[in-house]
């Protein structure tokens, strides 16, 4: 059995098309959604991510503005930038590209973003709303994962989902979204004992830890849906996910590729969050 590919690239294209239509509807009312990105330093991966986000904005008609700072920026300088963006009525979504340099208090900077302009869904208020079952802006990667699962009609209610990774950006919010869909959820992390045995119980297995090819075929239940959130650059310069794609695709029922799986959906959900915020601000 060879797994069905969960094609995030094509699904993201359809999401962007819907976003473009919504942008046109808002434009007819005199509203143009605006996204502001804050980028610090010269991290190559961060630059690629931000460039892709800006390109997606251009494609869909969302106005984008990039605020760049040197690696030596202070926390206060970023707080001042965020405060100005919060006050700018032409900005409906703000994203602060992570990671930030060590001297910056990242938690303070993220907390300073107005919750209604939190395009990434990282603000404590939005995470708390998700926990309460009243989601506002949902973190983009978990939202993208759920959209991929829905597009393939992967059964969730009553099924066992195992999420490897407990970050506030992916693992924890994804657990909450899966619980809202009546899945039975186990979350694993670096201190989990018997990871392989737990993973083998999963009907839906999500890897989000940033370790290349951590999940191997012997960790996957036949027919399971395997979602690979990781993006890792190997010594030869190629990209690999947290899943050993070549071996796992022969066992799984569904699998996401890297690249072309979760990544494009993350950007698509960012656009949705921004446009939704613009529509709400205009209502």
What's this entry about, in short?
This protein has ten helices and eleven strands.
Q: Report the count of strand segments.
A: 11
CATH superfamily of the largest domain: NAD(P)-binding Rossmann-like Domain
Q: What is the average per-residue confidence, as pLDDT, rounded to a whole number?
A: 96
Order of helices and strands: EHEHEHEHHHEHEHEEEEHEH
What would you say this structure looks like, in words?
- With 283 residues, this protein is an alpha/beta fold.
- Helices cover 42% and strands 16% of the residues.
- It has 10 helices and 11 strands.
- The protein has helices at 8-28, 44-60, 75-87, 106-112, 124-131, 140-151, 171-180, 195-199, 245-248, 262-282, and strands at residues 4-5, 34-40, 63-69, 93-96, 160-164, 184-188, 204-207, 225-228, 232-233, 239-240, 254-255.
- Strands 1-11-8-7-5-6 form a 6-stranded parallel beta sheet.
- Helix 2 links the parallel strand 2 and strand 3 (63-69).
- The termini are far apart.
For the structure shown, list the relevant keywords.
six-stranded parallel β-sheet, 10 helices, globular, Rossmann fold, alpha/beta, three-stranded parallel β-sheet, 283 residues
């Amino acid at each position: 059995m060879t797994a069905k590919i969960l094609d995030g690239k094509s699904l993201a294209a359809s999401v962007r098309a819907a976003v473009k239509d919504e942008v046109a509807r808002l434009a007819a009312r005199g509203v143009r959604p605006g996204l502001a990105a804050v980028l610090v330093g010269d991290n190559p991966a961060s630059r690629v991510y931000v460039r892709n986000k800006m390109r997606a904005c251009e494609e869909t008609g969302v106005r984008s503005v990039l605020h760049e700072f040197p690696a030596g920026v202070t926390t206060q300088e970023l707080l001042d930038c965020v405060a100005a963006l919060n006050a700018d009525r032409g900005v409906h979504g703000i994203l602060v590209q992570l990671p930030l340099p060590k001297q910056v208090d990242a938690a303070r900077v993220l907390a300073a973003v107005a919750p209604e302009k939190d395009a990434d869904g990282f603000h404590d208020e939005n995470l708390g709303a998700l926990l309460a079952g009243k989601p506002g802006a949902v973190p983009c990667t978990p939202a993208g994962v759920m959209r991929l699962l829905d597009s393939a009609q992967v059964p969730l209610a009553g099924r066992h989902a195992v999420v490897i990774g407990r970050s506030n950006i992916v693992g924890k919010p994804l657990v909450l979204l899966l619980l809202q869909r009546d899945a039975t959820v186990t979350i694993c992390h670096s201190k989990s004992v018997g990871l392989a045995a737990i993973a083998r119980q999963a009907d839906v297995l999500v890897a989000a830890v940033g370790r290349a090819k951590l999940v191997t075929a012997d960790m996957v239940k036949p027919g399971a849906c395997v979602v690979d959130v990781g993006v890792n650059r190997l010594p030869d310069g190629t990209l690999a996910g947290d899943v050993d794609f070549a071996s796992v695709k022969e066992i799984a029922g569904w699998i996401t590729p890297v690249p072309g799986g979760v990544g494009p959906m993350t950007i698509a959900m960012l656009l949705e969050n921004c446009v939704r915020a613009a529509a709400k601000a205009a209502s």
